[in-house]
UniProtKB/TrEMBL annotation:
This is WD repeat-containing protein JIP5. Coiled coil: none annotated. Belongs to the WD repeat WDR55 family. The lineage of its organism: Eukaryota, Fungi, Fungi incertae sedis, Mucoromycota, Mortierellomycotina. Residues 278-316 have a biased composition (Acidic residues). PROSITE patterns: WD_REPEATS_1, WD_REPEATS_2.
Length: 342
């Protein structure tokens, strides 16, 4: 998509609940509330559904390659391709399962939550998966081991989205109350910082780079947030008053796409975000090299390596809602090496 005109808005007759970018090509697949999948190219596609089934489709022919009708006992609410061979799914009862995509067999099951799994993220280097849930906790798993590594304290708020940032030093979690809870890696007991300011629930998070995320809220607005130091950069797009269901970054980091209850997928040019960051890093590196030339004995590391937590923004008196967020219907999924950002 680099250098191309901004894609036109995709409009459907029904609500789009999820979509995925191709990891190397300008291709997008969308999954609708009706169970229909739209895609114009590619080799294959994983799907999950409200009846707890997992399937694999040949996108070119529409043929069903794999069908596991009883993969989960409850509707599947979250899906993430962790590696080329391992798929993770989370359902409305709080169960997470890992699947070997080569054989279609279940390799691991975790039943540590008692409410819906809202989102999943994965760090490939440490083989660690993090999950957010409607019960107000996040859980941490080494996917090579059968037992959960840790679970956070209950935030008394539904946690709806999760994202690993800061080169695996932080995990950012969006909540029903509109608070971004920030956890330090390895210190899972409670969040170490909170970013308050979203007036509505943070239903989806997308990492722009290690220091910046985009948030999609139920007020229909997509915001850009700097993480530690926490700062609101601005609004990149909106779907009027319709809740944002999903946001994702294209493979070349040119466009951020979003889907909403207005039955559209829209594209937002975010090249300025990554280009500005690159320029800042280049200037910082140049200044550091200059300082090192002036004083060869100066062994101080770059300021970018500092990791500052601030609990001052923690508003423990913030009111808590008691209403539950309706569970999302199961998103469309992806296949190994095809839509591996889902």
């Amino acid at each position: 998509m680099a250098g191309a005109l901004q894609p036109d808005t995709l409009t459907y007759k029904y609500t789009v609940f999820d979509f995925a970018f191709h990891p190397t090509a300008d291709i997008i697949a969308t999954g609708l509330i009706t169970g229909h999948i739209n895609c114009h190219d590619g080799a294959g596609l994983f799907t999950v559904s409200k009846d707890g089934a997992i399937g694999a489709l040949d996108v070119n022919t529409g043929d069903v390659l794999i069908k596991k009708p009883d993969a989960h006992d409850h509707p599947i609410n979250a899906i993430k391709l962790l590696t080329e061979t391992i798929l993770a799914t989370g359902d409305d009862s709080g169960t997470i399962k890992l699947w070997d995509v080569r054989t279609g067999s279940e390799t691991m099951q975790y039943s540590d939550h008692d409410d819906f799994i809202s989102d999943l993220d994965f760090d490939a280097d440490s083989k660690t998966m993090v999950a957010s849930s409607g019960q107000g906790t996040i859980s941490i798993y080494d996917i090579r081991k059968p037992n959960m590594l840790a679970m956070s304290a209950n935030q008394d708020d539904e946690l709806l989205s999760i994202c690993i940032v800061k080169d695996r030093r932080k995990v950012v979690v969006g909540s029903q109350e509109g608070v971004l809870n920030i956890y330090s890696w390895g210190d899972w007991g409670d969040c170490t910082d909170r970013f308050i300011g979203h007036p509505n629930s943070i239903d989806t998070i997308c990492k722009i780079d290690e220091d910046t995320v985009a948030t999609g809220s139920s007020d229909g607005i997509i915001r850009i947030i700097d993480i530690l130091p926490n700062k609101f950069q601005g609004i990149v797009g909106e779907h009027e008053d319709f809740p944002i269901e999903c946001i994702k970054l294209s493979h070349d980091k040119t466009y951020l796409a979003s889907c909403s209850h207005d039955d559209t997928v829209r594209f937002w040019d975010v090249r300025h975000l990554t280009s500005d960051r690159d320029e800042m890093e280049d200037d910082s590196q140049e200044a550091q090299e200059t300082n090192e030339d002036k004083d060869s004995d100066d062994d101080q590391g770059p300021s970018g390596d500092m990791d500052v937590d601030s609990d001052d923004s923690d508003d423990s008196d913030a009111p808590k809602k008691t209403s539950r967020r309706p569970k999302k219907q199961a998103p469309a999924a992806n296949n190994p090496g095809f839509f591996d950002d889902l």
